[in-house]
Write a structure and sequence with these properties.
Layout: E1 3-6, E2 9-13, H1 14-19, H2 22-26, E3 32-37, E4 42-50, E5 57-60, E6 73-76, E7 81-88, H3 95-99, H4 113-129, E8 134-137, E9 143-146, E10 150-152, E11 161-163, H5 166-182
InterPro entries: AD, Gemin6, Gemin6_C, Gemin6_Sm-like_dom
Protein name: AD domain-containing protein
Domain AD: 85-183
Length: 183
């Protein structure tokens, strides 16, 4: 149970963190946190991503961003986390910087908002056609959720699926690939 300490600051214990599902992981992505580990070492930075299987966190130190584009990253193993203190809930501060970390200059151009909405609706209808219970979730309803077990993020491709269960993940990814082949 995350207990608020002061305004906009909350603490998630290690046990609570290990019980979180991918939808809850997504709620702390891009937030500024302080992570305490069993080694009594503290890490501070912005959460870039969380591995849903090992629950390891990639933490970026955006304040140490160098002009040449290099950004210090830390990997904190999930089993070593004793607690996470959310220091800043503003997810927009460094989102663009973090999202651009692993995108090269040759990356395909991003889709417009209209194209993303169209792709989401197309996938949603495809999943419903195959009797998969799907609903919109996330901030601004920009993601799709299947039975609160799997999340599909924009641009709604097989690699944009988040799920702890490998069997469900593989089947939904195959279904999305089949949609591309069918059209």
């Amino acid at each position: 149970m995350a207990a608020p300490m002061e305004e906009n600051v909350s603490v998630i214990t290690g046990d609570e963190f290990r019980q979180m599902d991918p939808i809850h992981f997504k709620s702390i992505i891009y937030k500024r946190v302080r992570i305490c580990a069993v080694t009594e070492y503290q890490y501070e930075g912005w959460i870039y991503t969380i591995d849903p299987v090992s629950q390891s966190i990639i933490l970026a130190q955006c304040e140490s961003h160098s002009p040449d584009g290099q950004l210090p990253l830390s990997v904190i193993m999930g089993h070593s986390i004793t607690d996470i203190t959310v220091l800043d809930n503003d997810t927009t501060k460094h989102k663009a910087l973090l999202d651009g970390l692993f995108k090269g200059d040759t990356q395909t151009q991003s889709l417009s908002a209209g194209e993303l909405a169209s792709q989401k609706e197309k996938l949603k209808e495809w999943l419903k056609l195959h009797r998969v219970p799907v609903k919109e979730c996330g901030e601004d309803n920009d993601s799709l959720s299947i039975s609160d077990v799997l999340v599909i993020e924009p641009p709604y491709e097989p690699d944009n699926c988040l799920c702890k269960n490998e069997i469900i993940l593989a089947r939904v990814q195959a279904l999305i690939r089949n949609m591309a082949d069918a059209t």
